């Protein structure tokens, strides 16, 4: 699958070209506005969340729904939790709405990328319509506060000398992929202990059953604030610039040079297949407008996410890259 992005280059030469450039820009802006204004929702919109209320996907879906309502006051949009099959039922629902722009999906890496790679499901992300990415969640490696491991290097050294048990939430989870990247880079092996959830991972860590666990910031932040666990590293290109995670070194700063793409948990919106350009543009612009509000900023800060807005072809290119970096990792663990 190849995605081609066309870019127009303009050369400004003297006053004449400056005027031409300004006129061209104005024309392009008018065209974009006209394209969006040529379509708007004609009925109630459903934001499908493919998981139960209370999790990260549900939190995102509800934040995005509220945000779209704020920036598109004439749109009636509501959350619809359609659960089952680890997210597959909700995703498949949109396949059955081909050409219907009144269905959106609160999407993330696990169900959009990893599940179709590991299971025989009727959908894949490229059978749907990528609208926009709105945020990224990151994977941390955490240890109990009284752990003898002060750095990721300490944990790696321990694994070279003997068995080190680590907690993950299943094969293919961002945490499992994060540990796998460390194993490949450092030529070590961790003993994986699989639990059903991040909270179960944390309980095993605090109980001394494992030496380390993978967790996203939202899963671990309260324990970090309470001085019960510490983060050795985070799979993030740059550190958080403030708050309780600002001192956590990135995986690169910890001396392990890996591509963090497979470990990212994107939060974004997919739509039914077969949408027109005007319909796609309408929803893309709605997400962009939401990303400029205080409500969006609050969602990002409260959940310790990184703001990352990609729309249309740029979002599709990211999804393809993530698919292509995760697929070989899953194959190696078969």
Briefly characterize the structure:
This protein has 334 residues and is α/β, with parallel strands linked by helices. The chain folds into two domains: 45-137 and 264-332, Bordetella uptake gene, domain 1 (D-Maltodextrin-Binding Protein, domain 2), CATH 3.40.190; 140-260, 3-Layer(aba) Sandwich (D-Maltodextrin-Binding Protein, domain 2). It is 43% helix and 18% strand.
What does this structure look like?
- The protein has 334 residues and is of the alpha/beta class.
- It has two domains: 45-137 and 264-332, D-Maltodextrin-Binding Protein, domain 2, CATH 3.40.190.150; 140-260, Periplasmic binding protein-like II (D-Maltodextrin-Binding Protein, domain 2, 3-Layer(aba) Sandwich).
- 43% of the residues lie in helices and 18% in strands.
- It contains eleven helices and eleven strands.
- The chain has helices spanning 14-37, 56-71, 88-95, 109-118, 152-161, 174-186, 198-206, 217-225, 277-290, 294-302, 312-332, and strands at residues 45-49, 77-81, 103-108, 129-137, 140-144, 165-168, 191-194, 212-215, 229-234, 265-271, 306-311.
- It has a six-stranded mixed sheet with strand order 2-1-3-10-4-11, with helices on both faces.
- α1 crosses α9, α2 packs across α9 and α4 crosses α11.
- The longest helix is centred in the N-terminal third of the chain and has 24 residues, at 14-37.
- The chain starts with 13 loop residues before the first helix and ends with a helix.
- The model is unreliable at 1-36 (pLDDT under 50).
């Amino acid at each position: 699958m190849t995605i081609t992005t066309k870019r127009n280059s303009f050369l400004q030469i003297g006053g004449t070209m400056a005027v031409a450039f300004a006129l061209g820009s104005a024309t392009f802006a008018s065209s974009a506005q006209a394209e969006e204004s040529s379509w708007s929702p004609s009925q109630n919109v459903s934001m499908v969340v493919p998981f139960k209320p209370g999790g990260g996907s549900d939190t995102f879906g509800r934040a995005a729904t509220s945000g779209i309502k704020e920036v598109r006051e004439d749109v009636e949009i509501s959350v619809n939790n359609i659960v089952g099959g680890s997210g597959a039922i909700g995703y498949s629902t949109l396949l059955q709405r081909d050409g219907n722009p009144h269905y959106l999906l609160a999407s993330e890496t696990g169900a959009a990328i990893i599940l179709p790679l590991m299971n025989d499901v009727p959908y894949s992300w490229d059978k749907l319509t990528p609208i926009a990415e709105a945020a990224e969640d990151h994977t941390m490696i955490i240890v109990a506060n009284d752990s003898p491991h002060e750095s990721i290097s300490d944990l790696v050294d321990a694994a070279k000398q003997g068995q080190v048990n680590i907690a993950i939430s299943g094969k293919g989870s961002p945490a499992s992929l994060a540990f796998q990247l460390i194993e490949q880079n450092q030529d070590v092996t961790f003993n994986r202990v699989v639990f059903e959830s991040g909270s179960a991972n944390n309980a095993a860590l605090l109980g001394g059953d494992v030496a380390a666990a993978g967790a996203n910031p939202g899963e671990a932040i309260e324990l970090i604030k309470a001085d019960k666990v510490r983060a050795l590293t985070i799979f993030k290109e740059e550190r958080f610039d403030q708050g309780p995670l600002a001192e956590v070194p990135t995986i690169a700063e910890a001396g392990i040079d890996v591509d963090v793409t497979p470990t990212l948990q994107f939060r974004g919106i997919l739509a039914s297949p077969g949408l027109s350009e005007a319909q796609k543009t309408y929803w893309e612009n709605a997400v962009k407008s939401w990303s400029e509000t205080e409500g969006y900023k609050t969602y990002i800060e409260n959940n310790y996410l990184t703001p990352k807005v990609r729309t249309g072809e740029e979002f599709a290119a990211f999804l393809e890259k993530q698919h292509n970096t995760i697929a070989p990792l899953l194959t190696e663990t078969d």
